[in-house]
Automatic annotation (TrEMBL):
Gene3D superfamilies named in the record: SH3 Domains (2.30.30.40)
SUPFAM superfamilies: Prokaryotic SH3-related domain
InterPro entries reported in the protein's UniProt record: YjdM_C
Lineage, top ranks: Bacteria, Pseudomonadati, Pseudomonadota, Alphaproteobacteria, Rhodobacterales
Official protein name in the record: PhnA protein
Domain of life of the source: Bacteria
Residue ranges annotated for the Protein YjdM C-terminal domain, each copy included: 105-171
Listed PANTHER family: PROTEIN YJDM, PROTEIN YJDM-RELATED
One Pfam family per UniProt: YjdM
Length: 173
């Protein structure tokens, strides 16, 4: 009997995650959640271990499910600390719709940005809906690209996720 690589549920089957060789053994609940039908709850805490697995297929499945839980603070925090190899991260984000054909996110110097990059703010930015000001020189790690707007990225500054205009950042080396 095969068990799910994410939640260890019995009776799991092999699921192809991308056009390449990325395959994970998933139960029906986890497989359904990958298609977008996910209900937040404590069931998904298993992803905290799965995202650190040695297998790229397991990492990709866990990463995608964590991204599908934006309302769960623990999932957002985990996404900020997790490290995936650049090629694995690219495969996880492309299949998730992160990269839209023809949409390029560029910083203030015209350098191409990618999901997961670290950028530095080049200007003090007041955060709408808050009294917070994101200070110039603040490093924003693990940015996310706004899918349908090439002028915007998302990142966490002082523990708060904010939308940042690309023209106010520069990519860190």
């Amino acid at each position: 009997m095969t068990t799910c690589v994410l939640c260890a549920a019995p009776e799991a089957s092999r699921v192809q995650l991308s056009l390449g060789e990325d395959i994970a053994v998933l139960c029906t609940v986890c497989e359904t959640a990958l298609t977008g039908d996910i209900t937040p709850g404590p069931r998904w805490r298993c992803l905290a271990d799965a995202v650190w697995a040695q297998d790229a297929g397991t990492q990709i499945a866990a990463y995608r499910l964590l991204r599908a839980l934006p309302g769960e603070p623990w999932a957002v925090d985990l996404l900020e600390t997790v490290y995936l190899a650049p090629d694995v991260l690219a495969r996880a984000e492309v299949e998730q719709g992160e990269a839209v054909a023809g949409t390029e996110h560029r910083d203030s110097n015209g350098v191409l940005l990618a999901g997961g990059d670290t950028v530095v703010l080049i200007k003090d930015l007041p955060v709408k809906g808050s009294s917070m000001v994101a200070k110039r020189g603040t490093a924003v790690r693990g940015i996310r690209l706004v899918q349908d707007n090439a002028d915007q990225i998302e990142g966490r500054v002082n523990g708060q996720t904010i939308v940042i205009l690309c023209r106010f950042v520069k990519k860190s080396a």
